[in-house]
Amino acid sequence: MHVEHHPLIKDFPERRELLHELRQSDPHFAQKALQYEDLDKRICRVEDGLELLDDAALHTLKNDRVALKDEIARQLKRASGSCCGKCGG
Fold first, then answer.
1. Contact 42/57 with Cβ under 8 angstroms?
2. Please, what sign has the CA dihedral across residues 30, 18, 88, 10?
3. How many Å apart are CA 50 and CA 6, to the nearest integer?
4. CB 68 within 8 Å of CB 34
5. What pLDDT was estimated at residue 6?
């Protein structure tokens, strides 16, 4: 069974240009984006059966991916002049 990747560009299509800009100008953002994409690819390899991992470890990877995506979303909001997401505004 093929599992679909969750690339950042698919999750944030309206922020395509900002994603590219931040990858080029912000080393911390670029590192987080790369970590997210590497983690997403690994999760897909596990779910496709190409890499073995127990359910608890896979669950941990998925939680890590969500945490990274949340952090990236906050950085995107902050860079676009919106709220960082922490205050709920």
1. no
2. negative
3. 17
4. no
5. 84
